[in-house]
Each structure stands twice: as C-alpha cells, then as structure tokens.
Amino acid sequence: MPIEEWDHLQPRSPLCNGCQKAFADKEDYHTILSLSQQGYARQDVCEECWAKGGDPAKRSGALSYWQGTYQIPAPPKAEALKKEDAESLLRKFIDSKDPGHSNVRYILAVMLERKRTLKQRDIIEREGEKVLVYEHMRTGETFLIPDPRLRLDQLESVQAEVVALLAPPPAPTPQEQAATEAAALPSDERAG
Hints:
The chain has helices at 47-53, 86-96, 102-114, 152-166, 174-184, 187-191; strands at 28-36, 39-46, 62-69, 118-126, 129-136, 142-146. α2 (86-96) runs antiparallel to α3 and α3 crosses α4 (152-166). The protein starts with 27 loop residues before the first strand and ends with a helix. By secondary structure, the protein is of the alpha+beta class. The longest helix is centred in the last third of the chain and has 15 residues, at 152-166. The mean pLDDT is 78. 32% of the residues lie in helices and 24% in strands. The strands form two sheets. The chain has a three-stranded antiparallel β-sheet with strand order 2-1-3.
C-alpha cells in the first residue's frame, strides 16, 4: 500500500476492541497497528484483553505497538475565528497528498511534538522509507508522517516556508481596502 494511503487511521477508540468495555479516564491501554487486506488498522485493547492476547511480536500483521493512558477527551472549545495554526496546516497538508509538502509536514509534526500535541509512538521502515507514527494526545488520532530525510542545508528554507505559512496575512493596502469596500456596495451605489 502506498504511503499516501496511510494518512488517517482510526482515532483512539473509546472502547476496548476486545471486550467492548468503555475505557475509564487514566486507564492504561495497548495499541496495535497492523496491515490487513483492507489496509492499515488500529486496535486499542484494555490490560485484561492484552494479557489474554500474549506478546505483540507474535501477533499476526503487527507493524507497530505502543502503550498509553486513556484520557477522556475534553469537549471541543468553540472558536470565534478559525486560525491557521500548526495543527490545521498539518491536517491540510496531509489531506493535500502533494509530495512537495513532505518537508513541511515533517517540520509541522516535529513542532507539534515539541508542543506535546503529538507524541511519537514508533518508527516504521516500510518500502525503504522511514515513517514516524504519531498519536494526537487529545483526540487519539494516529498520523503517519514520512521522514523526508532533510539535510542541514535544507532546514533554513523549510523553516522559512513554515513561518510564512503560519504568519497572518499582511494588512491590505489602502487601494485594496477601497476596492474591497467598493465591491461590497450594491451596483446602483457604485455607479453613482
């Protein structure tokens, strides 16, 4: 399966995929990332089901494994304005499938890891490509970010690109402001 199809896996489940019991707040869980005929799949299981299943290395099709502590998600905050932040940019660039965004995706993921929004759970070597497995700490979503193997001489230009993407748009010039206001007027007022 091509790496482009890895972008969004299931988020962390609120239920154990084994016994279907709801996870309690601060309960430990185990996650198995595997490959099946339908594609990549994530399984979250409680301690009890994990103990019944045995060693993750012996599980069929397991690509990655990690253990975490379940946190009941807080209700989403209402945002007055949707701002372009590192997380929304990462989501946009993952959805874009543009290979030209691979360096920016990687830098944004590292930024979000440093902010403790994403947590690196594993590194997978697949088809000669190194892929970082991240889990979103609030939502439990899994993100697979290919490592573009940036060279030191590329970092400055990629960082500048990310800064430009995160910067607010420049204020309109007086001419642009006047043109915008004129366009908003009804057509009979513009003619007068």
